[in-house]
Design brief:
single chain, 2 domains, Beta-lactamase Inhibitory Protein, Chain:B, domain 1, alpha+beta, 4-stranded antiparallel sheet, 166 residues
Amino acid sequence: MNWLLAAVFAFLTCVSGCATTGRSLVAGVSTTADVIAQMGQPAERVPAGDGDTIWFYPNQPFGRVTYAVYVAPDGRVRLVDQVLDEAHVARIVANQTTRAQVRAMFGPPYLTSYLPRQQREVWTWNLFNVQQIPFQLHVQMSDDGIVREVLMLEDRRAYNELFFRF
């Protein structure tokens, strides 16, 4: 019976996750109407510095990816990118990157919290590292909106649930 539950879970995960990847969107050809038809309404739209608008499609907390669709001012798709990975995390520079830049990199966080003693706001996302091990990304920002610390910690709870549940 456990193998059946695992198979059903894997199927449903693929169906829900695969439907929102935007794989058939073509840069320079697909329009915002195509994006909405394939991926639905975005969770958030963030203006980019170059005039583009970034549409975010997170599948948090159960998934560990967020798709960003970069839409040019003319309404055409420039890029579809899965942004929750170590390459994107490496772009954050402590004491330099701003809150707005982090939001434009990753979209809405899965969880937000505040550490009053340190006077830090913390944004959290679930992601996989390059070995597909579950991690949590915690970005700590001071009250002036500057990133002070970036922590990528192994999510042992999720790892145990994934590999030792059945």
